[in-house]
Amino acid sequence: MAFVSGAVAIAGSQTASSSTEAACPANFKVFTQKSVAFREYAGFKPVTSFSRVSKFAASRSAVKFIAPVTPAVTRCAFDLPTLPFEKTALEPYYSSKTLDFHHGKHHQAYVTNLNKLIPDTEFEGKSLEEIVKLSAGKNPAVFNNAAQIYNHTFFWSSMKPNGGGQPTGALLDKIVQTFGSFENFKTEFKTAAVTQFGSGWAWLVKEKDSLKIVKTLNAETPITTAAVPLITVDVWEHAYYLDYQNRRPDYVDTFLNNLVNWDFAAANFAK
């Protein structure tokens, strides 16, 4: 999964294969060693399970087998999305230390968990958005992990270096029309984010011809509704505690004044 040019771009459905040539997306790399093919892609990384596994080591540029292995099944699996900015690019407002934990640990855990949950289920081979929508209200474990992968990836794209300020053009006009002024919007968005009890998210969404500010609990996400998300701020404590401790209002102010990516929001608004 990747977010490109400010708009969401989710890899399409994939079908698992029993051969070593899994039906993975285009734009992949193929690594072959001892008749075993490995592919690598921005949103999916094939995972090969073995019926008999000896020690092996792999890097992103090469695959080296220390001892022979017997391939059994090759599958396409979700990979941790790359941040759309350098880890230090948001400092001093959002630290690389926070990103080490938030992206490298928390986000990665959701990816790892989902890859364990979907093999040999109805969700295998589906895109991330399809999994989120299909599992909503039916499979909490799959939904929580898939939705958190989506929400976090959307959050990274909702920020940019030298962000903040206000949007321009049609999006600004719609915000002023809906909320009375841009300052009123900021106040209402901050209120939603700060008053979200416990863990969750605050969102600016488009629903038909209207804009709305909504807040969601835990992994809940607007894409299970008719709404189109424009931006989000993560108000789980792990999103801000290393930098802001218990000062959630300061964190949300900083998001709006220095981090929010209005280019991303405008691209989503134009859909």
List keywords for this structure.
271 residues, alpha+beta, three-stranded antiparallel sheet, two-stranded antiparallel sheet, 8 helices, disordered N terminus
Neighbour order of strands in the largest sheet: 10-9-11
Class derived from helix and strand content:
alpha+beta
Oligomer: single chain
Beta content comes to 15-25%
Low-confidence stretches: 1-22, 24-72
CA distance, first residue to last residue: 19 Å
Number of strands: 11
Instruction: Outline the biggest β-sheet.
Output: 3 strands, antiparallel
- What radius of gyration results from the CA coordinates? 20 Å
Order of helices and strands: EEEEEEEEHHHHHEEEHHH
Give the count of helical stretches: 8
Q: Which descriptor suits the 3D outline? A: globular
Residue share in helices?
25-40%
Averaged pLDDT, please? 81
Task: Walk me through the structure.
36% of the residues lie in helices and 23% in strands. The chain has 271 residues and is α+β, with helices and mostly antiparallel strands. The strands form five sheets. The chain has a three-stranded antiparallel sheet with strand order 10-9-11. It has a two-stranded antiparallel ribbon with strand order 1-2. It has a two-stranded antiparallel sheet with strand order 3-4. β9 (200-207) and β10 (210-217) form a beta hairpin. It is globular, with a radius of gyration of 20 Å.
